[in-house]
């Protein structure tokens, strides 16, 4: 079974359209992200209110993962 915490979301680079993969932790901890295709550096200015929601989502994902591991 795939671990939900390791699933990566992504977006297309505005310069080269390369699919840039990232995790919730990246949005919470990093100030910028680089495109692996063209090396474009993009600032990630995530508002604090959104970061709060991302933390809640991350905690929920962690609880689901722990619950699945207990049931195995």
Percent in helix: 40-55%
Structural class: alpha+beta
- SSE pattern: EEHEEH
Rg over C-alpha atoms, rounded to the nearest angstrom: 15 Å
Report the end-to-end length measured between terminal Cα atoms.
11 Å
Strand proportion, as a percent range, falls in 15-25%
Categorize the overall geometry: elongated
Return residue spans where pLDDT drops below 50 for at least 5 consecutive residues: 1-6
Q: Tell me the count of domains.
A: 1
Compute the number of strand runs. Answer: 4
**Taking all residues together, what is the mean pLDDT?**
86
Query: How can the largest sheet be summarized?
Result: 2 strands, antiparallel
**Sequence of strands across the biggest β-sheet:** 1-2
Count of individual helical segments: 2
Account of the 3D structure:
The structure is a single chain. This protein has helices at 24-29, 48-70; strands spanning 9-12, 19-22, 32-34, 41-43. It is built from two helices and four strands; from the N terminus they run ββαββα. By secondary structure, the protein is α+β, with helices and mostly antiparallel strands. The strands form two sheets. A two-stranded antiparallel sheet has the order 1-2. The protein has a two-stranded antiparallel sheet with strand order 3-4. The model is unreliable at 1-6 (pLDDT under 50).
């Amino acid at each position: 079974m795939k671990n939900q915490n390791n699933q990566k979301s992504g977006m297309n680079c505005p310069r080269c359209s390369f699919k840039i993969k990232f995790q919730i932790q990246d949005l919470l901890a990093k100030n910028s992200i680089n495109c692996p295709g063209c090396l474009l550096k993009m600032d990630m200015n995530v508002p604090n209110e959104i970061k709060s929601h991302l933390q809640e989502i991350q905690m929920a994902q962690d609880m689901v993962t722990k619950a699945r591991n207990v049931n195995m």
